[in-house]
């Protein structure tokens, strides 16, 4: 409700809900806080922290920031609030939060946490609040904790699709390199929360790596959370689906092969709606006289730097291709265009048709100059298809490969390929061919390659002395976000590489 109040005020200038929620925050401040006689507590499902910072931006009221800081600083401190609560009232709801406390991230003070633990949405909402408070208060120790959480996440615990939270049980993180493709959770909300966290980090210390992670989550798991017609939604975002197993195996019943219309706990659909409706917040951040463009989406943006009011127009079909044209308005400011990590430095940059040797600083090509109205900056990023391999400790993906193009991860679907997809193999020598198909799945770049698949060779024994036969097939990869729009069927992101 606080986030809604701040968003509604920002969009309309109307204060009614903002004033109500300001009184609510002041009331909470009379009940919870460090002072004697108040509860020394914090929420079981974090989110109020980041919402209070939004309220702080909307109102300038220092109580908002004080309360957000308190919730973050108190979390996990001895004596621990939920231990006291659980003793005071032994019951189901109290037990749920009890030891070791990592389910709701109160197992240690937040500055001592090195990895995202427990319920993935809670963990990432907390991390977002931590980054927000670190920025607003200049707290380096808190920012350091955010950096550690980020490093652990991207190097050990995030799916190639930007999905997070690998276990259905507790909708949670488990341990490093545990990334099962078929029993996965990867809630849509968790990847949205990852976008929140990355945006909070980008607003604190612009670094293209945060934008890379945000883009991965956005273009893969987040938008896969919704069908192409916008009517159906995924809560769980698997990287491998076998519809019969989803129907009959208790450990995969949560992995649905088609998007349902709605959920009993319908957090993901509206979360996705607000993410997409506020996408401009993620596309740009400003710092001093620099405008950082993190995402490339066609449209026009009005932005304020320290000294200038700037209008930027972006024309692009990215990520269908890697060609981005930005038209600037007059003024003296720096334009920092993100050079995505996936292009491995393969990009060109021109201003009004002339090649520019821009410095790449923290993942951004920075052009600082006195701009004239209508100056045209063209950034061309290499989005040729590539094979992506996974760290050898991820057991599920050993000997396998995934295919990606630009920020978009691809998958094989039964509608285009012979099954079982588990029997498909992509030779390491096979070339990846791209083709734009305007009338398929809303307009996609399809990738095809020569491969093989295991076939029925007439031997029905479960165990045998010779390997089953293979035959050559043409493999067709589609963007992951477009899967499950053609009925129930097998799907896989990873394929064996031979
Ligand atoms: Zn959700």
Helix and strand topology:
Blueprint: H1 2-12, H2 16-31, H3 48-59, H4 62-74, H5 81-88, H6 92-97, H7 120-137, H8 140-157, H9 188-204, H10 208-224, E1 240-241, H11 243-248, H12 268-277, H13 280-283, E2 284-287, E3 290-293, E4 299-304, E5 309-316, E6 323-327, E7 331-338, E8 347-351, E9 354-355, E10 359-361, E11 364-371, E12 376-381, E13 385-388, E14 400-405, E15 408-413, E16 424-426, E17 433-437, E18 444-454, E19 470-479, E20 491-492, E21 495-497
Parallel strand pairs: 3-7, 16-21
Antiparallel strand pairs: 1-20, 2-3, 4-5, 5-6, 6-12, 7-11, 8-9, 8-12, 10-11, 13-14, 14-15, 14-21, 15-19, 15-20, 16-18, 17-18, 18-19
Helix pairs in contact: 1-2, 1-3, 3-4, 3-7, 4-7, 7-8, 7-9, 9-10
The site of zinc ion has 7 residues, from helix 9 and helix 12.
